[in-house]
């Protein structure tokens, strides 16, 4: 009887492990699939915006709306600001997120003319562990070299969102962290002055 009970326990334990493994693989597949769908939808919106014929100011405003929907701007802003984020007040954090989103939209919105008639093709996605899911894509521009863009997608805030771009191997987060850090140093480490500068910078 003891042997039979032990056998049943062993079989039940094995079945449980198999179920956990299956659910883990299913969750991983869902995360990868969801991230790929997110980037595909985002890419379609970006292509539509760039080829819309809008004036640059209109495209920048549209780009800022797209960022708000697809990017997890709170964690992005926190990562870019670094240590000063941890000591900032809730009001300063909220103001910095808004200022950075506006600054980022204007900064990159000024380059949209280079991507007229470009297409974005999603080529793959893979699990990046704690980094989230990395979705690979290629930006194809008529008569110009292709650009490799990897999108880092995380669902830590509850839904899949973009938290970083790696363009030709260069991390947007790392690049912006260095630039914003230099801007903060130029303001004597005064976060409020940095926020004011970013809010009006072109």
Secondary-structure blueprint of this entry?
Blueprint: H1 2-50, H2 56-70, H3 73-81, H4 83-87, H5 90-109, E1 119-127, E2 133-140, E3 147-154, E4 161-167, E5 170-171, H6 172-186, H7 191-200
Antiparallel strand pairs: 1-2, 2-3, 3-4, 4-5
Helix pairs in contact: 1-2, 2-5, 3-5, 3-6, 5-7
Mean pLDDT: 85
The CATH class turns out to be Alpha Beta
Number of strands: 5
State the secondary-structure class.
Answer: alpha+beta
CATH architecture: Roll
The geometry reads as globular
- Can you say what the CATH homologous superfamily is? Tgt2/MlaC
The radius of gyration is 22 Å
pLDDT < 50 stretches: 9-29
The CATH topology comes to: Nuclear Transport Factor 2, Chain: A
Number of helices: 7
Overall helicity: 55-70%
Largest sheet: 5 strands, antiparallel
Percentage of residues in strands: 15-25%
SSE pattern? HHHHHEEEEEHH
User: What number of domains?
Assistant: 1
Note the gap between the termini.
79 Å
Instruction: Trace the largest sheet across and list its strands.
Output: 1-2-3-4-5
Brief sketch in words of this structure:
This protein is an alpha+beta fold and 202 residues long. Helix content is 61%, strand content 17%. A hairpin with a 5-residue loop joins strand 1 (119-127) and strand 2.
């Amino acid at each position: 009887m003891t042997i039979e009970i032990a056998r049943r326990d062993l079989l039940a334990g094995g079945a449980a492990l198999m179920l956990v493994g299956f659910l883990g693989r299913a969750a991983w597949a869902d995360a990868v699939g969801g991230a790929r769908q997110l980037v595909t939808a985002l890419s379609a919106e970006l292509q539509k915006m760039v080829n819309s014929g809008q004036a640059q100011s209109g495209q920048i405003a549209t780009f800022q709306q797209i960022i708000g929907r697809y990017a997890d701007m709170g964690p992005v802003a926190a990562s870019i600001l670094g240590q000063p984020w941890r000591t900032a007040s809730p009001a300063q954090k909220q103001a910095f997120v808004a200022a950075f989103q506006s600054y980022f939209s204007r900064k990159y919105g000024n380059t949209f003319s280079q991507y007229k008639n470009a297409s974005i093709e999603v080529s793959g996605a893979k699990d990046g562990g704690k980094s989230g899911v990395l979705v690979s894509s290629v930006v194809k521009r008529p008569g110009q070299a292709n650009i490799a863009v990897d999108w880092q997608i995380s669902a830590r805030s509850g839904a899949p969102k973009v938290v970083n771009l790696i363009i030709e191997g260069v991390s947007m987060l790392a690049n912006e962290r260095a630039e914003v850090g230099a801007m903060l140093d130029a303001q004597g480490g005064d976060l409020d002055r940095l926020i004011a500068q970013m809010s009006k910078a072109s």
